[in-house]
UniProtKB/TrEMBL annotation:
Membrane topology: Multi-pass membrane protein
Location of the protein in the cell: Cell membrane
Native organism taxonomy: Bacteria, Pseudomonadati, Pseudomonadota, Betaproteobacteria, Burkholderiales
Official protein name in the record: Cytochrome c oxidase subunit 4
Tree of life domain: Bacteria
Amino acid sequence: MTKPGKPVARALKVWIALLLLLGVTVACSYVPLGAGNTLVNALAALAKAGLVIAFFMHLREAAPVIRLVAIFGAITLSLLFLLSGLDFITRASGDAPWQATPPSLYMEPAN
C-alpha cells in the first residue's frame, strides 16, 4: 500500500511534467522548424498521453490483462493511423471525374 502523501507528490510531479510538455508545444509554435514542428509536437503529445495513461488512469498498477488490452488497443490505433497515412500518401492527387470542369454547352461561332 502507498503512503497517504505519496500519490499527491506523484500527481504533482506528473502535473509539472505535463505543464513543461505544454510549454514545449507552445514554444514550438513560435520557432520555425518546418517539418520539425510536427515531429516535436507529435512526440510531446505522445509523452503527454503516456503520462496520463500511466499515472492518472492507473495503468501502472492495473492487472496484467488490463495492460494487455491497453497495449492491444494502442497497437490497433497505430495500425489504423499507419494504414490511413499510407492511403493518403499513395493516392493520386488529380481531380476526380466529377470535379473536372464540364465542357461548354454552347459552342463559340467559328469565324
